[in-house]
Write a sequence for this structure.
């Protein structure tokens, strides 16, 4: 890989993108075989994988809007890469379509004969019905794509010319964008993950889903920066000072995720009302207990203690390993949210879990790579770029 | 690789945080002047008023101890009334101080330097007010020490599974950590006061408190490290204290109390009300003591943005509670929320919604969030709204419990009101003493954000 440090562009990008696309297409074809052999398993695996890759894009959207809203200087050099992660959303929207054919397999509220015998589901019918479900999904994707397109458009416009007004424009988009984002991600979480068990409910669930998404995105961002830098790209631009701050964010959102997860678990455990505990019981009584414990230790304790010392946050190797680890844990978390509704009696891994992950991941990585290769790697005319490059962590 | 430097754009530079062409000397002078000049008569008037209210508090508590909690408006279903409401309200207000001093410090928000001392003091006084209520509401005041796990020959221990005990630990830890943090930040300024003291007794007292501070390089290094560590320790406390307070309600199985979003929702509400209180007090103080150069409209605007953010989070939580109450399909949950909005306490609910969700939306507009009269009224309304939020939570869920035969309407008595009003006496007495005798703005930290303090001033260091 070659990189021009005057234009911040990749001049030779290698063939990673193409390889990723081929792997992705092969994975998707493999998934299609899964659909033929075991549709229920396929849709659950696909939903997990889909939400995983979508969540990185949504985390990117959030991170970009946050950056504009607070007027952060240090993170200017991270902005373009975050935008590239964000711009995978439109394609992920298309990859949502297969799930529409799986509503019956995934959600028991979509079976009229089940609803007829279930008083609770009848009372939820005004919200949990197929038409409204699809309509809502369309609304979520319209919101996300609109925000992503606008943020991307003005960001690229900023590359063309010095225009300090654009900083303001981007901020003006981000402020209402944040509200739309908060509501859409919450209800998407309710629709696609919480309603898998349509009886169960939790007011914190939207925030819980969001916390995992953002942590996953930060891990992916850290991972991609470190892999670019291992090829000598952006080395003097993104410095150990930025690594340190990314490490702090990883640490902070590890704790934030744990705070949400603990609040949800603890209040339900203490209240001990059967209609709420049933969801955790399903994830505790059988071999799912192992995954539950893995989340406690792997998603919280391990990154917490590893990222605690300042030295670890500035150490490339440690950051690389922990960001891969956190991505794996993010997948485990989603698997734990989705899969017990199909396999309530215990852990069940299927070959479709990795294959759908690879299929969608290949497409995701290809999109990310393609945009990374096509545009400057940092917002070259952002007035904060100089401050960001010279940034020193106090 | 070429050696020629690539083109890097530079920012136009942020506006200065402190105005009026201050120098290091003028900062010291302007802040110390407030405590060194002759006591203004208005201060005595204010202290007199505050202490009168404080007497009302003592009187109310005295009568409570004599007569018992029957003097309050508690009735059969509503066993928790204003005492817990006031406790949560005051603790919530206490959250802004530590957020400003610890979290904004870790986030490198340098504008905090003009308001952190002030806000931290407010935190300590608000917690002092809050701590009164759990102490006095127990009824048998002579065994209030049972709240602490003190070894005794009867082997009687508090119930460790009770969130009321966690409150004792959480709030006292918070108070201790906030006090340490505040005091650590004060040390260099106390040394300045010592050095400027004109009387022997002042010199002795400030000298004692300054712990032998000389301002040497080694001392600064230790000081800054200690400050960073204390900020790190205080940060989780900002989140944990109100999370624990929220469990007072949320671990129960009472509809309207038992909901998983309570911990973060309470934290957001606490920061919201705390910032509103800081804005209220800051507007008064900067006017009275001519601190407009130090606490600029820029500072106030930033605080208003945080109010807008946290107010919207609170609005989100109200929305989630309502939606999930419907979505749960649980008729008791649904009844409680319908009752809140349209039942006998609807007036309180709509005061809460108007003040907490609608009022902060004014701050979307720069004109309004930089207007002193608008933000002053808004900040007062927000604290009214946040008091009513706790009222709505505590009273509506209890007044109509599972057995309709038990339902009753809760009315406060004069003693509820006098105890609450009296707690303002304590708050303002402490506050007035603070601004009279201690630097209400951090002298050292404000100096650090002056342009002169930047070694790269007037050009890049390349």
């Amino acid at each position: 890989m070659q990189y021009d440090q005057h234009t911040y562009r990749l001049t030779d990008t290698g063939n990673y993108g193409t390889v990723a696309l081929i792997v992705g297409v092969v994975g998707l074809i493999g998934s299609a075989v899964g659909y033929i052999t075991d549709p229920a398993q396929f849709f659950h695996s696909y939903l997990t994988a889909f939400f995983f890759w979508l969540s990185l894009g949504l985390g990117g959207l959030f991170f970009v809007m946050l950056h504009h809203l607070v007027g952060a200087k240090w993170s200017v050099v991270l902005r373009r890469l975050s935008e590239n992660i964000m711009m995978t959303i439109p394609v992920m929207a298309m990859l949502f379509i297969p799930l529409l054919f799986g509503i019956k397999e995934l959600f028991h509220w979509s079976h009229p004969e089940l609803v007829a015998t279930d008083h609770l589901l009848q009372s939820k019918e005004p919200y949990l019905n197929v038409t409204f479900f699809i309509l809502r999904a369309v609304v979520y994707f319209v919101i996300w794509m609109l925000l992503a397109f606008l943020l991307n458009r003005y960001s690229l416009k900023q590359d063309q010319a010095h225009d300090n007004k654009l900083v303001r424009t981007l901020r003006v988009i981000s402020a209402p964008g944040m509200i739309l984002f908060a509501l859409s991600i919450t209800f998407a979480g309710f629709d696609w993950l919480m309603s898998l068990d349509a009886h169960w409910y939790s007011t914190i669930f939207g925030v819980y889903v969001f916390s995992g998404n953002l942590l996953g995105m930060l891990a992916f961002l850290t991972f991609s920066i470190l892999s670019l830098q291992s090829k000598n790209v952006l080395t003097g631009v993104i410095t150990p000072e930025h690594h340190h701050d990314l490490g702090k964010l990883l640490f902070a959102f590890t704790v934030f995720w744990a705070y949400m997860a603990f609040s949800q678990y603890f209040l339900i455990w203490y209240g001990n009302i059967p209609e709420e505990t049933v969801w955790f019981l399903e994830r505790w009584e059988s071999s799912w207990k192992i995954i539950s414990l893995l989340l406690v230790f792997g998603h919280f304790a391990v990154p917490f203690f590893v990222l605690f010392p300042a030295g670890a946050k500035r150490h490339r190797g440690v950051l690389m390993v922990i960001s891969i680890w956190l991505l794996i844990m993010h997948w485990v978390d989603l698997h734990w949210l989705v899969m017990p509704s199909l396999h309530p009696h215990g852990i069940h891994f299927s070959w479709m879990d990795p294959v759908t992950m690879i299929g969608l991941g290949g497409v995701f990585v290809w999109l990310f790579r393609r945009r990374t290769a096509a545009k400057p790697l940092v917002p070259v005319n952002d007035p904060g770029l100089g401050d960001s490059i010279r940034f020193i962590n106090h | 690789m070429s050696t020629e430097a690539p083109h890097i754009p530079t920012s136009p530079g942020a506006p200065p945080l402190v105005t009026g062409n201050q120098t290091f000397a003028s900062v010291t002078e302007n802040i110390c002047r407030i405590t060194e000049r002759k006591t203004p008569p208005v201060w005595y008037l204010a202290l007199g008023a505050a202490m009168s209210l404080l007497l009302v508090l003592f009187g109310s508590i005295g009568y409570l101890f004599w007569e018992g909690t029957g003097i309050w408006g508690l009735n059969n279903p509503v066993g928790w009334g204003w005492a817990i409401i006031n406790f949560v309200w005051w603790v919530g207000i206490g959250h802004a101080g530590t957020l400003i001093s610890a979290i904004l410090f870790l986030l490198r928000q340098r504008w905090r330097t003009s308001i952190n001392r002030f806000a931290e003091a407010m935190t300590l006084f608000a917690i002092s007010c809050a701590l009164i209520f759990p102490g006095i509401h127990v009824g048998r005041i002579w065994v209030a020490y049972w709240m602490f796990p003190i070894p005794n020959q009867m082997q009687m221990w508090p119930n460790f599974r009770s969130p009321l005990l966690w409150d004792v630990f959480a709030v006292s830890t918070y108070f201790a950590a906030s006090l340490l943090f505040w005091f650590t930040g004060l040390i260099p300024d106390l040394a300045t006061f010592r050095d400027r003291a004109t009387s022997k007794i002042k010199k002795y007292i400030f000298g004692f408190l300054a712990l032998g501070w000389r301002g040497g390089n080694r001392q600064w290094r230790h000081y800054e490290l200690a400050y960073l560590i204390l900020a790190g320790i205080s940060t989780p406390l900002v989140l944990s204290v109100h999370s624990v307070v929220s469990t007072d309600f949320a671990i129960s199985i009472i509809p309207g109390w038992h909901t998983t979003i309570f911990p973060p929702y309470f934290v957001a509400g606490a920061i919201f009300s705390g910032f509103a209180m800081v804005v209220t007090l800051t507007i008064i103080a900067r006017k009275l003591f001519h601190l407009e150069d130090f606490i600029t409209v820029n500072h106030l605007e930033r605080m208003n943005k945080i109010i807008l953010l946290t107010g919207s989070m609170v609005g989100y939580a109200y929305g989630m509670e309502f939606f999930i109450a419907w979505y749960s399909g649980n008729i008791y949950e649904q009844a409680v929320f319908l009752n809140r909005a349209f039942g006998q306490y609807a007036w309180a609910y709509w005061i809460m919604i108007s003040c907490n969700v609608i009022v902060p939306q004014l701050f979307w507009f720069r004109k309004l969030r930089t207007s002193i009269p608008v933000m002053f009224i808004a900040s007062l309304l927000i604290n009214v709204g946040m008091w009513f939020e706790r009222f709505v939570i505590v009273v509506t869920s209890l007044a109509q419990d599972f057995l309709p035969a038990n339902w009753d309407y809760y009315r406060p008595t004069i003693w509820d009101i006098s105890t609450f009003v009296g707690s303002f006496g304590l708050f303002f007495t402490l506050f007035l003493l603070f601004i009279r005798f201690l630097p209400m703005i951090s002298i050292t930290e404000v100096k650090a954000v002056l342009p002169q303090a930047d070694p790269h001033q007037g050009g890049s260091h390349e």
Notes: Chain A touches chain B through 50 residues (CB under 8 Å). The first strand of chain A starts at residue 2 and ends at 4.
